[in-house]
Structure formats: structure tokens, C-alpha cells
Amino acid sequence: MSSELKILIAVAALLVALTLGIAIALVVRLVRARRALRRAGLPVENGWVFWAAVGYLLLPVDLLPDPVLVDDIGVLLLALRSLRPRTTELRSRTTR
Prior knowledge:
Number of helices: 3
Shape: elongated
Helix content: over 70%
Strand content: under 5%
Number of strands: 0
Radius of gyration: 17 Å
Distance between the termini: 64 Å
Structural class: mainly alpha
């Protein structure tokens, strides 16, 4: 195997590991945000968004091939963004 091919494989593996790490970190943030909202007694109006984002990450059907998790990361970011107004309300309740 040539050295160029080894470098290409190493770079590809690094990119896959990096995107997987980002996706896992976003899932953890999403779960923590939903849990904080439920603990505070705030209704999670967009509960389906949470489950849809987690399902999209886990299901094998993707817009882009699975080693490229860019579409999964985008869906997770959108789900976090949809929960953000409620977390802002939670912060304002706790600071009073």
C-alpha cells in the first residue's frame, strides 16, 4: 500500500471520528436540555422534535452516506435550537 493511500485513509478516519464525536456531544446536550425542562415542570411542546432527531441519528436512512454525519449533526442542532426558547424561560424562572 502506498504512503499516499495510508495518509488518505488516516485523514478519512480522523474526519469520521471527529464528526461522530460532535454528534455524540450534541445528543448529550439535547438529552440534558430535555431533562432540565422536564425537571423544571415546563412542558416540552416539541417533544416530537427530540425523538425525531434521535431517530434520524440512529436510523440507517440518511440524506448523506453514514460515514458523513453532517446531516445528522444538522438535525441535532435544529432540535437543540427548537428547545432553546424553553431553556431561556427556565433560566429566567430560576434567577428570580
